[in-house]
Amino acid sequence: MSPTPTPADVLESVRAAVLEAEPHLLELSHALSDDPELAFDEVRAAARVAAVLEDAGFTLTREAYGLPTAIEAVYGTGELTVVIACEYDALPGVGHACGHNIIAAAAVGAALGLAPLADELGLRLVLLGTPAEESGGGKILLLQRGAWDSAALSLMVHPSTAGQLPATGLVTFALEHVRVEFSGRAAHAAAAPQTGINAGDAITLTQVGLGLLRQQLPPATIVASRVVEAGVATNIIPDTGVMEIEIRGANAQEWNDVRARIRKVVEGAAIATGCTWSVEPTEVPYEPLTSDPDLADLWDGVLAEDLGYSSGSIPPGYVGGSTDMGNVSQYLPSIHPMLELKDVEATPHHADFAAAARSAAGDRAVVDGALGLAFTVAKAASLTELRARLLDLQAQRKPFATFDAER
Q1: What is the CATH number that goes with domain 173-281?
Q2: What is the fold, at CATH topology level, of the domain defined by 8-171+289-406?
Q3: Considering just the CA atoms, what is the radius of gyration of the chain in Å?
Q4: What is the pLDDT of residues 98-123, one digit of tens each?
């Protein structure tokens, strides 16, 4: 790729706009942290994000794509449509212990930083408020309803305490949650056990099968389970058995193969005990993240050259958590980079991480995250070959509903 350097004055204009908005961004981050809301209930969070963008002249759609807590804010009419994903759901019991207050404020900051230059850069900016990342797959529902159909690229940023990992090569786990149910026949465990069909035994056999399967699991594939129901009394042979299984994998094909094998384990347990069985997803599956290499390189360069971060290398075998941004990345060029919370050791999904996300380190991540996203978009819009590739891919891409049905 032979880049045309982004003019320094463009980046300085973006920086100035972000820094001008900094008080509002930190106020937003703190307000979200102080008032956490769970998946699909982010009413006040969505309203706060919408208010900031509407005041800045963005065209707002509330309850976007039929989701009550999704918003879509649009600015500019350029041919290159970029969707900045803005998460704002919290976790039960520990609030914003995954730093979604930072994610939301950084996304808003990036949009505000780019808006004054949208026409000059030929951009159509879309900030998409995406509910329910922690559970429920809000982005997947939005994908299915066409929220990314007109986009050329998409990006967001996530805080991390694992050091400054490069975006290039970063992967996340695919994830599926399923509910397994066995139906048998109840009987008195002493007077007539021979007339029963023991659904609890089917649960036990499934657990044994999963344990034996682990020997053959591919690297970076993880299976976890818990028993929900396996009987109510020792003198009653249970007619119902219920368990939940979680399947994660870093490689899509291997993950799909393991999903199929687990269903065979369940079927085998049902055959052995005489039960009927079902396996039903409890949420839409999260797919693995595939980072666009050009966008990832741009992000890594921005952090090193423009923001002064020193990226390490991804440790061998390292895989991030799971995110519905993975599904987005399977459809169009995307990145979901991590941004280090400086001098913070707390682990995500712990109360200490929620406190750090509201600290000075969290505030710095809001501003640097906004600058990183905005600079990456500005450079992508200005690189002739990259811009042409993104637009060409967009022109060839089918609507998500068609894309999903054909794969």
Answers
A1: 3.30.70.360
A2: Aminopeptidase (3.40.630)
A3: 24
A4: 999 999 999 999 999 999 999 999 99
